[in-house]
Amino acid sequence: MVIELSDATPAHRDNFLKLVEEGFYDSLLFHRVINRFMIQGGDPASKNAAPGAMLGSGGPGYTVPAEFRPELMHIKGALCAARQGDQVNPTRASSGSQFYIVHGRPITPDELGSMQERYNLGKPEDQKFAYTADQISAYGTLGGTPFLDLQYTCFGRVVEGLEVIDSIAAVRTAPGDRPVQDVRMQLDVIR
Questions:
Q1: Rounded CA gap, 49 and 154, in Å?
Q2: What is the pTM of this model?
Q3: Cα–Cα distance between 29 and 66 in angstroms, integer?
Q4: Residues 53, 48: Cα–Cα separation, whole Å
Q5: Would 48 be classed as within a structural domain?
Q6: Any idea what DSSP says for residue 6?
Q7: 21, part of any domain
Q8: Does residue 182 sit within a domain?
Q9: Which among 63, 101, 127, 139 is least surrounded, fewest beta carbons within 10 Å?
Q10: Residue 180 and residue 172: Cα distance in Å, rounded?
Protein backbone atom coordinates (compact mmCIF):
# COMPACT_ATOMS: atom_id res chain seq x y z
CA MET A 1 0.00 0.00 0.00
CA VAL A 2 1.08 3.57 -0.61
CA ILE A 3 -0.28 6.03 1.94
CA GLU A 4 -0.38 9.80 1.59
CA LEU A 5 -0.27 11.70 4.89
CA SER A 6 -2.32 14.87 5.37
CA ASP A 7 -0.77 18.27 6.04
CA ALA A 8 -4.08 19.21 7.74
CA THR A 9 -3.08 17.04 10.72
CA PRO A 10 0.57 18.02 11.30
CA ALA A 11 0.98 16.52 14.79
CA HIS A 12 -0.22 13.09 13.60
CA ARG A 13 1.70 13.32 10.31
CA ASP A 14 4.97 14.23 12.01
CA ASN A 15 4.58 11.63 14.76
CA PHE A 16 3.83 8.86 12.25
CA LEU A 17 6.79 9.84 10.04
CA LYS A 18 9.12 9.90 13.08
CA LEU A 19 8.04 6.41 14.15
CA VAL A 20 8.36 5.01 10.62
CA GLU A 21 11.84 6.53 10.19
CA GLU A 22 12.91 5.07 13.57
CA GLY A 23 11.76 1.61 12.46
CA PHE A 24 9.19 1.48 15.28
CA TYR A 25 6.62 -0.36 13.13
CA ASP A 26 8.97 -2.91 11.56
CA SER A 27 7.60 -6.43 12.11
CA LEU A 28 4.62 -5.29 14.21
CA LEU A 29 1.33 -7.09 13.61
CA PHE A 30 -2.01 -6.00 12.31
CA HIS A 31 -3.34 -7.33 15.61
CA ARG A 32 -7.04 -6.48 15.19
CA VAL A 33 -8.83 -7.21 11.92
CA ILE A 34 -12.57 -6.86 11.41
CA ASN A 35 -13.87 -7.42 7.88
CA ARG A 36 -16.04 -4.56 6.60
CA PHE A 37 -14.70 -2.36 9.42
CA MET A 38 -10.91 -1.89 9.71
CA ILE A 39 -7.43 -3.34 10.13
CA GLN A 40 -5.46 -2.12 13.18
CA GLY A 41 -1.79 -2.24 14.16
CA GLY A 42 0.93 -0.31 15.93
CA ASP A 43 1.05 -2.05 19.32
CA PRO A 44 4.78 -2.54 20.08
CA ALA A 45 3.90 -5.60 22.21
CA SER A 46 2.88 -7.36 18.99
CA LYS A 47 6.45 -7.64 17.68
CA ASN A 48 7.24 -10.86 19.56
CA ALA A 49 3.76 -11.75 20.79
CA ALA A 50 2.96 -15.37 21.46
CA PRO A 51 0.07 -16.86 19.48
CA GLY A 52 -3.21 -15.98 21.15
CA ALA A 53 -1.72 -13.21 23.31
CA MET A 54 -4.10 -10.31 23.85
CA LEU A 55 -2.83 -7.18 22.12
CA GLY A 56 -3.93 -3.60 21.68
CA SER A 57 -2.95 -1.76 24.84
CA GLY A 58 0.68 -0.92 24.02
CA GLY A 59 2.16 2.29 22.73
CA PRO A 60 5.20 4.56 22.90
CA GLY A 61 4.22 6.12 26.24
CA TYR A 62 2.50 9.26 24.97
CA THR A 63 -0.63 10.41 23.16
CA VAL A 64 -1.22 12.91 20.36
CA PRO A 65 -3.91 15.62 20.74
CA ALA A 66 -6.95 15.08 18.51
CA GLU A 67 -6.94 16.80 15.10
CA PHE A 68 -10.45 16.31 13.70
CA ARG A 69 -10.84 17.73 10.18
CA PRO A 70 -14.17 17.65 8.29
CA GLU A 71 -12.36 17.07 4.99
CA LEU A 72 -10.79 13.85 6.36
CA MET A 73 -13.48 11.22 6.75
CA HIS A 74 -13.54 7.46 7.36
CA ILE A 75 -13.80 6.48 3.69
CA LYS A 76 -12.22 3.14 2.72
CA GLY A 77 -8.44 3.50 2.85
CA ALA A 78 -8.41 6.28 5.46
CA LEU A 79 -5.45 6.08 7.86
CA CYS A 80 -6.68 6.95 11.34
CA ALA A 81 -5.35 7.02 14.89
CA ALA A 82 -6.66 4.54 17.40
CA ARG A 83 -7.41 5.80 20.89
CA GLN A 84 -8.85 4.87 24.24
CA GLY A 85 -12.59 5.27 24.77
CA ASP A 86 -14.30 8.51 25.78
CA GLN A 87 -14.85 7.30 29.37
CA VAL A 88 -11.09 7.40 30.11
CA ASN A 89 -10.13 9.81 27.33
CA PRO A 90 -12.64 12.70 27.17
CA THR A 91 -10.33 14.81 24.96
CA ARG A 92 -10.17 11.93 22.44
CA ALA A 93 -6.38 12.08 22.31
CA SER A 94 -4.89 9.57 19.90
CA SER A 95 -2.59 6.68 20.69
CA GLY A 96 1.02 7.62 20.05
CA SER A 97 1.49 4.63 17.72
CA GLN A 98 -1.64 2.56 17.13
CA PHE A 99 -3.51 3.21 13.91
CA TYR A 100 -6.15 1.63 11.74
CA ILE A 101 -6.96 1.64 8.06
CA VAL A 102 -10.65 1.75 7.19
CA HIS A 103 -12.15 -1.17 5.26
CA GLY A 104 -15.86 -0.48 5.74
CA ARG A 105 -18.82 -1.09 3.45
CA PRO A 106 -20.78 1.02 0.94
CA ILE A 107 -22.90 3.68 2.67
CA THR A 108 -26.11 5.14 1.20
CA PRO A 109 -26.83 8.89 1.12
CA ASP A 110 -29.69 8.28 3.58
CA GLU A 111 -27.30 6.64 6.05
CA LEU A 112 -24.94 9.60 5.69
CA GLY A 113 -27.86 11.95 6.31
CA SER A 114 -28.46 10.21 9.63
CA MET A 115 -24.77 10.58 10.50
CA GLN A 116 -24.86 14.27 9.61
CA GLU A 117 -27.87 14.79 11.89
CA ARG A 118 -25.95 13.09 14.70
CA TYR A 119 -23.06 15.56 14.33
CA ASN A 120 -25.36 18.59 13.99
CA LEU A 121 -27.49 18.29 17.06
CA GLY A 122 -29.66 21.35 17.53
CA LYS A 123 -31.53 23.64 15.16
CA PRO A 124 -30.88 23.39 11.40
CA GLU A 125 -29.60 26.99 11.31
CA ASP A 126 -26.92 26.04 13.86
CA GLN A 127 -25.56 23.15 11.79
CA LYS A 128 -21.83 23.31 11.23
CA PHE A 129 -21.11 20.04 9.44
CA ALA A 130 -22.24 18.71 6.08
CA TYR A 131 -20.85 15.92 3.93
CA THR A 132 -19.58 17.17 0.58
CA ALA A 133 -20.80 15.74 -2.73
CA ASP A 134 -17.38 14.05 -3.16
CA GLN A 135 -17.60 12.46 0.30
CA ILE A 136 -21.13 11.21 -0.36
CA SER A 137 -19.98 9.72 -3.67
CA ALA A 138 -16.88 8.10 -2.13
CA TYR A 139 -18.88 6.59 0.73
CA GLY A 140 -21.34 5.17 -1.82
CA THR A 141 -18.71 3.67 -4.14
CA LEU A 142 -15.72 2.82 -1.92
CA GLY A 143 -17.52 2.52 1.40
CA GLY A 144 -16.29 3.34 4.85
CA THR A 145 -17.24 3.75 8.49
CA PRO A 146 -18.91 7.17 8.85
CA PHE A 147 -20.06 6.49 12.41
CA LEU A 148 -16.42 7.22 13.40
CA ASP A 149 -16.26 10.58 11.60
CA LEU A 150 -15.14 13.47 13.80
CA GLN A 151 -14.63 11.02 16.68
CA TYR A 152 -11.17 9.67 15.72
CA THR A 153 -8.40 11.56 13.89
CA CYS A 154 -7.93 10.61 10.23
CA PHE A 155 -4.48 11.68 9.08
CA GLY A 156 -3.88 10.04 5.73
CA ARG A 157 -5.26 7.79 3.03
CA VAL A 158 -4.24 4.84 0.91
CA VAL A 159 -3.58 6.08 -2.64
CA GLU A 160 -2.39 2.74 -4.06
CA GLY A 161 -3.23 -0.77 -2.92
CA LEU A 162 -6.79 -0.69 -1.62
CA GLU A 163 -6.96 -4.38 -2.58
CA VAL A 164 -4.33 -5.11 0.11
CA ILE A 165 -6.82 -3.90 2.72
CA ASP A 166 -9.37 -6.33 1.27
CA SER A 167 -6.85 -9.19 1.54
CA ILE A 168 -5.96 -8.43 5.15
CA ALA A 169 -9.60 -7.87 6.13
CA ALA A 170 -10.49 -11.31 4.74
CA VAL A 171 -8.06 -13.30 6.91
CA ARG A 172 -9.42 -15.75 9.46
CA THR A 173 -9.43 -14.32 12.99
CA ALA A 174 -9.65 -15.77 16.48
CA PRO A 175 -11.80 -14.42 19.33
CA GLY A 176 -10.60 -10.88 20.03
CA ASP A 177 -10.26 -10.23 16.26
CA ARG A 178 -6.57 -11.20 16.09
CA PRO A 179 -5.62 -12.95 12.84
CA VAL A 180 -5.00 -16.67 13.31
CA GLN A 181 -1.87 -16.33 11.16
CA ASP A 182 0.26 -13.25 11.90
CA VAL A 183 0.05 -10.36 9.44
CA ARG A 184 3.24 -8.32 9.88
CA MET A 185 3.94 -4.81 8.62
CA GLN A 186 7.01 -3.14 7.19
CA LEU A 187 6.73 0.63 6.70
CA ASP A 188 9.03 2.91 4.74
CA VAL A 189 8.99 6.62 3.92
CA ILE A 190 8.89 7.67 0.27
CA ARG A 191 9.54 11.34 -0.31
A1: 27
A2: 0.95
A3: 24
A4: 10
A5: yes
A6: P
A7: yes
A8: no
A9: 127
A10: 6
What H or E segment, with its residue span, contains residue 64?
A: strand 63-64
Give the separation between CA 147 and CA 104, rounded to whole angstroms. 11
CATH, residue 43: 2.40.100.10
* Long-range CB contacts (within 8 A, 24+) of 176-180: 176/32, 176/54, 177/32, 177/33, 177/34, 178/29, 178/31, 178/32, 178/33, 178/52, 178/54, 178/55, 179/29, 179/30, 179/31, 179/33
Whether residue 183 is contained in a domain is answered as no
Distances (CA, A) of 96 to 14, 36, 88, 161, 168: 11, 25, 16, 25, 23
Q: CB-based contacts of 54: which residues, under 8 Å, 6+ apart?
A: 176, 178
Q: CA 48 to CA 145: how far, in whole Å?
A: 31
What burial letters (b/e) apply to 135-163, b meaning 16+ CB within 10 Å? bbebbeebbbbbebbbebbbbbbbeeeee
Per-residue pLDDT in tens (0 to 9) along the chain, 191 residues: 999 999 999 999 999 999 999 999 999 999 999 999 999 999 999 999 999 899 999 999 999 999 999 999 999 999 999 999 999 999 999 999 999 999 999 999 999 988 887 777 555 556 677 889 999 999 999 999 999 999 999 999 999 999 999 999 999 999 999 999 999 999 999 87
The boundaries of the domain holding residue 74 are 2-169
Total Cβ atoms within 10 A of residue 128: 8
